[in-house]
Amino acid sequence: GRLLERFGTLLRLGEGIDQSREMLAVARANLEAASLPHCQVRQGNLYQLPNQSESFDLAIIHQVLHFVDDQALAISEAARVLKPGGQLVIVDFAPHSLERLREEDNHRRLGFADTEAEGWFTHAGLTPKSTLKLAGSPLTVCIWMAEKPTPDQLQQTKPAANQIHLQSANGISQ
């Protein structure tokens, strides 16, 4: 709800998903106080979003992945609901060694490397775009961005039949 509250004036429609009824109640009150009737929040599971495929232009996963068990599945599900050409933005921590966050705040992971984020994107059929790092002490926040390819972009990445060059085991080209 916080991102909707911050950026709601820039959106035509906005929707936030959370599992916690308590967090949803707070978010609803804040959205109402901010006069953002075109933004809503609803209960849902990150692994099974309550939305149709290809229904969003932008999805943001903000400071959530360090709490979940299967980051790749969460990214794949976000990719499912993106329209072709849609953008996925992930905001989370770079690798760190603050073990107290596991105990005090239930973090399952202590940050992520850029290569992990790129792997999740690729696995989900997304094209990694850029990464921003907001250095802090003791934590650095990363913003990883990816795009769901359009049908035209997918077609451009496939070689045409007349461009395929095969070499047989005996060295004779076909």
Low-pLDDT residue intervals, each spanning 5 or more residues: 160-174
How many extended strands? 6
Strand content: 25-35%
Helical content band: 25-40%
* Average of per-residue pLDDT values: 89
Coarse morphology: globular
The number of helical segments is 6
Radius of gyration: 20 Å
Name the helix and strand elements from N-terminus to C-terminus, one letter apiece: HEHEEHEHHEEH
Structural class call reads alpha/beta
Q: How many strands, which pairing sense, and closed or not: the largest β-sheet?
A: 4 strands, mixed
List keywords for this structure.
174 residues, alpha/beta, four-stranded mixed beta sheet, two-stranded parallel sheet, 6 helices, 6 strands, 25% strand, disordered C terminus
Q: Could you describe the 3D structure shown?
A:
There is one protein chain. The protein has 174 residues and is an alpha/beta fold. The chain is built from six helices and six strands. The protein has helices at residues 2-7, 21-33, 71-81, 100-105, 114-123, 151-157; strands spanning 14-18, 39-43, 56-62, 82-93, 127-134, 141-147. The strands form two sheets. A four-stranded mixed β-sheet has the order 3-4-6-5. A two-stranded parallel sheet has the order 1-2. α3 (71-81) crosses α5 (114-123). The longest helix has 13 residues, at 21-33. It is globular, with a radius of gyration of 20 Å. It starts with a helix and ends in a 17-residue tail after the last helix.
Outline the secondary-structure elements.
Blueprint: H1 2-7, E1 14-18, H2 21-33, E2 39-43, E3 56-62, H3 71-81, E4 82-93, H4 100-105, H5 114-123, E5 127-134, E6 141-147, H6 151-157
Parallel strand pairs: 1-2, 3-4
Antiparallel strand pairs: 4-6, 5-6
Helix pairs in contact: 3-5
